[in-house]
Design brief:
With 330 residues, the protein is an alpha+beta fold. It contains 3 helices and 16 strands. β13 and β14 form a beta hairpin.
């Protein structure tokens, strides 16, 4: 029986695989609309962070002044200030030390000039004495032997004195030049320290860089997230606020990968703000990410699309959630 079962299985013909007709991908139908969600953002914005102070190892900065949320500003307007008492005190001390070193350089230069003039006078006097000694030695035939020996000794001493001065004067000049250069380098280094401290004090006064409106950012304060307030201790580098131009706003949408074909030039969108359900705005397609992406651990992929809002309304503010009905157009 076992032999018959095996031979029967080998004799059976293999079944042919089933054939399936290819199915073409369905194109989006004309007039088909999709609804998706996103957030309102400014087309032009600039983020202001808590400044970083050079040379600061650790610690935070105390906020002493902050513009109100929604304030309209122009370039150069002060929008925030931090406590800069320490920087101003250090800058004043550095300035006093720099002035002292500058006076030392001037005093040392004047002293070296006086010493150079004195050495030049000593050399001139030594050369005059040498010339006088040479004249005396020429009187040898009329001088006694003792006087001749004295004149010869005076001549030798004069020659040695002149030679010694000619060797020592350049050495003194090099030493004084090096001493003066050391003081100049110390003054220059102190000047750089002063400039750094003054720059640190200027960094603690934040000014607007573009015209627009202020939107305060959420920061970590008092064991919770919220807008910064005067007197808060803030860590350098943390975002403090954002300046945006309210005259040009856009809508950032997340469109599913299956609806990506609707994102094309000419696409329109009807926008509804969640915070103001009665308001409706229109927008047109501007751009989209070339590749769909997904969040970590999620199998759903979406395209990031940007639609430019066509109206200018004070209700359009950054980070507002919105729903949009997207129409592919013609």
């Amino acid at each position: 029986m076992a032999f018959w079962s095996c031979s029967h299985s080998r004799a059976a013909a293999p079944a042919e695989p089933e054939k399936f007709a290819p199915v073409a991908a369905a194109a989006p139908a004309q007039g088909r609309r999709i609804r998706t969600t996103g957030t309102v953002e400014a087309l032009r914005s600039f983020t202001i962070s808590v400044p970083r102070i050079s040379g600061q190892q650790q610690g935070n900065l105390t906020l002493t002044k902050l513009a109100l949320n929604g304030t309209k500003v122009q370039p150069g307007d002060i929008i925030a200030e931090f406590d800069h008492t320490s920087q101003i005190k250090s800058a004043r001390d550095a300035e006093a030390k720099f002035d002292d070193l500058s006076h030392q350089v001037e005093q040392k230069a004047a002293e070296h000039q006086s010493n150079a003039a004195k050495r030049a006078a000593d050399l001139a006097q030594a050369e005059a004495d040498l010339g006088k000694a040479r004249l005396e030695i020429r009187k040898g035939p009329v001088l006694s032997e003792l006087e001749h020996l004295k004149a010869d000794e005076v001549l030798k001493n004069a020659e040695l004195h002149v030679a010694s001065l000619k060797i020592s004067i350049p050495a003194h000049e090099r030493a004084e030049a090096a001493e003066l250069q050391v003081l100049k380098l110390q003054a220059e280094r102190q000047k750089l320290t002063l400039m750094r401290l003054q720059g640190d004090a200027d960094k603690l006064v934040l000014r607007a860089t573009i015209p627009g409106m202020i939107a305060l950012q959420n920061v970590w304060r008092n064991n919770s997230m919220g807008h910064a307030q005067e007197g808060d201790q803030l860590w350098p580098g943390n975002p403090l606020l954002r300046i945006f131009d309210p005259s040009s706003m856009l809508l950032q949408l997340a469109v599913s990968e299956t609806d990506g074909a609707i994102l094309r030039p000419g696409a329109k969108a009807v926008v509804h703000l969640d915070a103001y359900p009665s308001l409706t705005f229109s927008a047109h397609f501007d751009s989209a990410s070339p590749v769909a992406s997904s969040a970590l651990g999620s199998p759903l992929k979406t395209f990031t699309a940007r639609f430019i809002l066509e109206q200018n309304d004070p209700h359009l503010l950054p980070d507002l959630s919105a729903a949009a009905d997207v129409d592919p157009g013609n």
